[in-house]
Each structure stands twice: as C-alpha cells, then as structure tokens.
Amino acid sequence: SRDADRCQxxxxxxxxxxxxxxxxxxxxxxxxxxxxxxLDWSTSPAIIxxxxxxxxxxxxxxxxxxxxxxxxxVILLSLDESLERNPNAQARGSGRSLAPIDLxxxxxxxxSLLNGFGGHPLAAGLSLPGRNIPLFQEGIHQVxxxxxxxxxxxxxxxxxxxxxxxxxxxxxxxKVLDPYGMGHPEPLLLLRKVRFTDTFTRKxxxxxxxxxxxxxxxxxxxxxxxxxxxxxxxxxxxxxxxxSGDCDVLVQFIYNVYKQRCEVCLEALxxxxxxxxxxxxxxxxxxxxxxxxxxxxxxxxxxxxxLTTCPPHWTALSQAFQTAQRQxxxxxxxxxxxxxxxxxxxxxxxxxxxxTLLQTAQSRAQxxxxxxxSDRVLEIALxxxxxxxxxxxxxxxxxxxxxRTPEADPAYPQSPQDRLQILRDAIAExxxxxxxFATAPCEMLEQLLxxxx
Length: 453
Hints:
Largest sheet: 5 strands, mixed
Helix content: 25-40%
Strand order of the largest sheet: 1-2-3-5-4
Structural class: alpha/beta
Distance between the termini: 52 Å
Number of strands: 17
Radius of gyration: 27 Å
Shape: globular
C-alpha cells in the first residue's frame, strides 16, 4: 500500500497478533514440558506427544524449540477428541528434526499408519488416526535405533569471538552473508569464559503495552578481554537459569532496531572447557557439479567418484557417498533435474508393458529403464497387479514374467483402484525426491548423509 496510515494499522495488528502468538506458544510449551516430566525420554531417539486441543498451527514452533533443547526429532500432535470418547478421533500436527536425521524419510517409513504428510528433511506436517499413535511412536523409535540415529547433543560454532569483537563492524560483515535459511543457517558465535551480569526476567508486551504469557531473560555478557559488556536476551527462559560462574556460550549476533543497538541471542551455554573447537574445517565430501556445463567435468579430481544419475531415494545416494568415502575421495553430484512424465502416464505404460510380460520375460533393469523408475517403485508396480488376477514369477531372480491366475482373490485389503493410487503416489514421491536431490544445497545433503559415513 502507498497509504502510510493503512500500513501503520496493519503493522500494528500483525505485531499484536505475533505477541499474542508468543504467549500462546509459551503456554503450549509449558504443557508439553509438564507431560515430558512425567515420562522418561532420556534414552528415546525422538519425542512424540499428543494431546487434545493443542493448537495445530503452533505445534511446529513448539516442536522446533524442543528439538533445539533436546537435540532430537520432535513430533507434536493435536487430537480433535479423546480416544476414550471417540475411538475414531483424528490427530494432526507438526515435527521438527536436525541434521542428519531426515524427518521426511522417517514419516515415509510409517506411511501405512498416516492419512497424509508433507514437508522436507528438517520440518514436516502429518495427520493420522489417533488409534495409530502408539504404533507410530514405536515405529519411529525402531527406525532410528536400527539406523543408529540416537540423540547426541553436538553444537558447532562458526566463529570464536570475544566480547570486544561484538561490535557494529562485525554485525555488518555477517550481514553480507544473509539471507539465512535451511541449508544456510545463521552463524553461531562461540564466546569462551564469559560471565552474565545485570540479569533479570521480564514478560513480553504486545503492541498495546499489555503483558503476554511469554518470559525472557535479559542480561549483559562480560569477559576478560575488555571492560565492555554486550546486552543479550534468552527467549523463553528466566534469569534464574543463567549460571553465576564462567561459561562458554553460543549466540546469534543481531541488531535490535527498536533499541538501536547490537545484542546477542543466547542459543546454548555450558560450563567453560566442555565445548571443544577445531581450528580447521574438514574438506568437503560432496562436490557440486549439478549446475555446471558438461565441459566442467574435466575439473573433477581424479580421486572423486562422479554420480551422473539423479538418485531416486536416500539409500542410493547414501551408498554412493559411502563408496566415495571408502575410496578416500569426494562424491561428485553431476546430475541434472530429471524430466519426469506424469505418474498416471507411467501407470498406463506399466499396464501396457504387463501385457507383454504375460508372454515374454524381461529383466528388472529393462523394465525400470522403460518406466524410468527405481527398483522400489517396480516392487510396488508388481504388487499392484495381484487384485487383477495376475501373478508374478521370477525365473531366474532378475527376470520378471507374469501369468494369469484362475480368479482374482477378493480378500485383498485394498481394492484394485486403491493399489493403483498407491502406485501413483509412490511414483510421485520418487519424482519429488529426485527434484529435491537435484536442487537441495550441497552442504545440507552432506550434513544429512554424514550419519551414514
């Protein structure tokens, strides 16, 4: 708008709603922590909780706070009714994860229990029948344990500084690096042997000056490098939680426009000497050639392993990554965004090909090449034929031939159309993953793959 008064009114309204949202978010966070206090989550690889009436729109924000605090995936669900009152009650919610645990991959592993889900490796939304929640919890925990993805709190600093370094010049230098986001997080600064002074707790106020149910701790940071102090804030905490002795802290360095000053946001703290630092960054284990012209392949190091076909799933990418590591080289991402046909077109082609397979056997590789799908999707395609009275034969194991059975078994839990929809969904899912592998930041892919190294 070019109307300054209208802009002012809208801005104040948004600010008011945002302050109230913080208060409601704090209330939900308190309720979640009260539930956690009654349970032993110390050895659980993920936190998964459900409650009637939690605002679904805030659960992602609360899950993000808990993920940072507990350093493990968090999924929070809101039930529309209690299961005691309605066994068919439904749940929906959100989850947050941290590298290298792919939340989207975890939800994919429990697809059969869900009504639907969507998102990306670090954040996702989902819905499911409430009665499936216990099975969903156990399934997620089992997958994480089987993959060795147990919680471990590892915090990495991008730069070590002193209190004297925290000035407007440093802020401007860091500002050059933004915008920040997934795959390019805001820098975390490490300060060692600092002390908190002038600490106090206050409640956040909305745009009208009314206090909301959201507390934060104000403080000043001081160390031995100078007599200068730097103001800071710890969102969602009280000053009683700040220790009195020397600490090592991780902070974000921000500019407070309202107070016209630089200050820090506290992200984590530990007693001095527990945080370990490394002076050198490891060499990249992924090299990104996805957007370079073909002639650039001549610049690839001899020890590197090129990957020229876009992987259809994480396992394929992980196996290539591990192979490159065993050869003490980097994995080169040298593929482009695949040109996909619609899932419905591929299903139609599959049924035409199935007519041929009733007469002549073909290898799995031949069928996959014709359809442009992975072995996983081919398995679903073969599975989809059973309600149509078609049986799959493997002789030898890599050869596929079909034959008709006398009568289709009516006892299948899914109808023929249901199975075809599952096949279309599987194809669409695989295409989505390939688009992700073709466009996701290389640094993020390396972080997510590092757990399999």
